[in-house]
Design brief:
This is Ribbon-helix-helix domain-containing protein. The protein is of the alpha+beta class. The protein has one domain (about 1-75): protein bp1543 (Ribbon-helix-helix fold, Orthogonal Bundle). It has three helices and two strands, in the order ββααα. Strands 1-2 form a two-stranded antiparallel sheet. The N and C termini lie far apart (about 35 Å). The relative contact order is 0.15.
Length: about 80
């Protein structure tokens, strides 16, 4: 059950400080993504934030988007939309 517990962390998205609340399991997946890309979790989150702003003008539920990014990563699939 510990992996399902929400955990809020302070993060910097493209230089702006904010708080992101995700379940522990998603933080672990983000750490894997960061390790695979030889960067920090903040860098991964900033990249996603920047891309969603450039391609779609932003997103209302960033934490939901990050959950999807984590699942897609685990599935090894690329989403083209």
């Amino acid at each position: 059950m510990g992996l399902a517990q929400p955990l809020a962390r302070s993060v910097r998205l493209n230089g702006f400080a904010t708080c992101l609340r995700l379940e522990e399991i998603y933080w672990r997946v983000l750490e894997r993504i960061a390790q695979a890309n030889r960067c920090s979790v903040n860098t991964v989150l900033s990249y996603v934030d920047r891309e969603v702003h450039l391609r779609h003008g932003g997103v209302k539920n960033f934490s939901g988007l990050i959950r999807v990014v984590c699942v897609v990563y685990l599935l090894g699939t690329q989403v083209t939309r």
